[in-house]
Specification:
Order of helices and strands: HHEHHEEEEEHHEEEEEEHHEEHEEEEH
Number of helices: 10
CATH superfamily of the largest domain: Lipoprotein localisation LolA/LolB/LppX
Largest sheet: 12 strands, mixed
Number of strands: 18
Oligomer: single chain
Helix content: 10-25%
Strand order of the largest sheet: 7-8-9-10-11-1-2-3-4-5-6-12
Number of domains: 2
CATH topology of the largest domain: outer membrane lipoprotein receptor (LolB), chain A
Strand content: 25-35%
Radius of gyration: 23 Å
CATH architecture of the largest domain: Clam
């Protein structure tokens, strides 16, 4: 198919704020992209060029509108998730970003309960390759299963009931979703971390497009076949050179506007840092049995609501009289500087930084280890260490101030110098 001449993106487009779009945005698991207004996105006028399959031309603006207006409520399929963030390894085979401990915020307070904790499973998705089976039937019925060789982990949301089940430990975590709205419908699971509730290409696409602004170039870059379906490829690139993000490519179903694949590639090149895509997908209504769950015989059941209430009472007792977040705010709190892809979050230090290798005893050992995974840097702000992954870098100064963002090392140093 020959490439068509690009047309101007005008300010007359209403950003998809039609009644149909407002309807789509109401749901928790629709594929509509909320909050996307082309007038605020730095769209580069472009059309789908030649490629396979041969599809009608479409502009980037119209493709975003197609995503936003998509009102698909029912689907099932298999999603392949591959993550390579370049997290540094820790002694014992762990990695930065993992966590342990037996008490979890979702009420799983013992070893088996922690095994079924959605928070723990979210951390597992932060590295390596994983296969997910997903199903959705409107806002009140969803299921996500992480399939391993030896076990399966599932989260099932059905009306006001939420279950998380780990077959490896034969443990289930149960809670009730809170109803909202005048009708009491559209229950939302309160225990599930965002990364598990939004583990599909369409949810990642939604977040990427929400972040787009005048610092972003958006084009249509050819076509593709994904999960046996024809798709356009939406290409998103930061215009800000200090960003560590090279590009985001979103394959969009040509028929219904559902994002089928999401690929984030670092500016440094190499394999994708995040690659999430359907390997098969069906837009028919899933069987009702997909959302039914009864704990198997002999399974340990953790009632998360009761455990959470108990943990909150203990927390209130342990921290009675402390100011908590207000104390954090008094010390300077969290602040965000910059905009777009080069936004940097800062936390003001309390004057005590990281241990140094020259320190004695355990502090010195910790300092030497930090030196092995971080780079020492200096500037008019003083000195500190930069800890890097393929996407996110963090500068921790010697006085404990933290600068972190998906930006290169020099951008962090410049931010620290400017704040001096």
């Amino acid at each position: 198919m020959p490439r068509n001449e690009p047309t101007e993106v005008t300010d007359g487009w209403d950003g998809g704020r039609s009644p149909r779009r407002r309807k789509a945005v109401r749901y928790a698991v629709p594929v509509a992209v909320a909050g996307v207004a082309a007038a605020t996105i730095g769209l580069v006028p472009a059309f789908a060029g030649s490629g396979s399959p041969d599809l009608p031309k479409i502009s980037a603006q119209d493709l975003i509108a197609k995503i936003a207006k998509s009102d698909v409520q029912q689907l099932s399929g298999t999603v392949r998730v591959t993550t390579d963030l370049g997290l540094p390894s820790l002694p014992g085979g762990g990695s930065v970003g993992g966590f342990g401990g037996e008490r979890q915020s979702d009420g799983a307070t013992d070893k088996d309960g922690a095994a079924a904790s959605p928070q723990n499973k979210l951390m597992e998705l932060a590295s390596g390759a994983h296969t997910l089976r997903v199903a959705a039937d409107g806002p009140d019925k969803q299921r996500v299963s992480i399939v391993d060789k030896a076990a399966e982990y599932s989260i099932i949301h059905n009306g006001d009931q939420v279950w998380a089940y780990d077959s490896g430990s034969n443990t289930a975590v149960h809670s009730k979703a809170e109803a909202h709205g005048r009708t009491g419908r559209h229950h939302q699971p309160k225990d599930l971390p965002k990364g598990l509730k939004n583990a599909t290409p369409q949810d990642l696409a939604k977040e990427a497009l929400k972040a787009a602004g005048d610092t972003t170039s958006v084009t249509v870059d050819g076509t593709a076949r994904v999960a046996g379906r024809d798709a356009y490829q939406l290409l998103i690139k930061p215009k800000q050179s200090a960003s560590t993000v090279g590009s985001i490519r979103i394959a969009v179903d040509a028929a219904n506007g559902v994002p089928l694949k999401f690929t984030l590639t670092p500016k440094s090149g190499g394999a994708a840092a995040v690659d999430v895509g359907y390997t098969n997908v069906d837009f028919a209504k899933p069987a009702a049995s997909s959302f039914a769950f009864t704990p198997p015989k002999g399974a340990k059941v953790v009632e998360a609501d009761k455990e959470r209430a108990k943990a909150e009472r203990q927390h209130a007792k342990d921290f009675k009289g402390r100011k908590g977040l207000e104390d954090f705010k008094d010390r300077g709190g969290l602040n965000v500087i910059g905009k777009g892809w080069t936004s940097i979050a800062t936390i003001k230090g309390s004057g005590s930084g990281l241990p140094a290798g020259k320190d004695k005893g355990a502090a010195g050992d910790a300092g030497k280890f930090l030196d092995s995974i971080g780079d020492k840097v200096t500037g008019s702000f003083g000195s500190g260490r930069v800890f890097s992954t393929r996407l996110v870098n963090a500068l921790i100064t010697d006085n404990g101030t933290v600068y972190v963002g998906a930006v290169d090392k020099q951008a962090l140093i410049d931010a620290a110098n400017a704040a001096k």
